[in-house]
Fold:
Amino acid sequence: MALDRDRIRFKGKALSAAIRCGGSIEHDDAGPFFDNLYAEWQGSGLSLDASEGWLDERLKDAFKCVERAPEWVDEEEPLWPFIDGKPMVFLAQCTMKDDELGREELSPGETAYLFGGRKHEDGKVRMTYTTVSQFAPGY
Structure:
């Protein structure tokens, strides 16, 4: 299998664009989303140098939020989950406090991010929820 240098360079640009748009395409289930994005870009006829603006425009509405965007603890490594080849919807986040309950029952300094999305199976649609988390520095 030949190494596709354009694909590798485009992936780097897509990762950066996703972060600029508040999301990420690093999740394990983001592969089909990236594959479609790459195919769209190839079909656009744009050069790799012109892909950044195209990616920003294409991804600006891809990472949807119910009320507000996540406030990532680690802005350089957000982990946005995907379902059925598309980004899930951000619902809410919660940071565990460094108090008695947090120390005894939870994980102080950890922020949990809740996402939801529709899962299509056997001709039916059901809601699916998932969480990702990040730790504040020093925890």
Summary: The chain has one domain: 5-135.
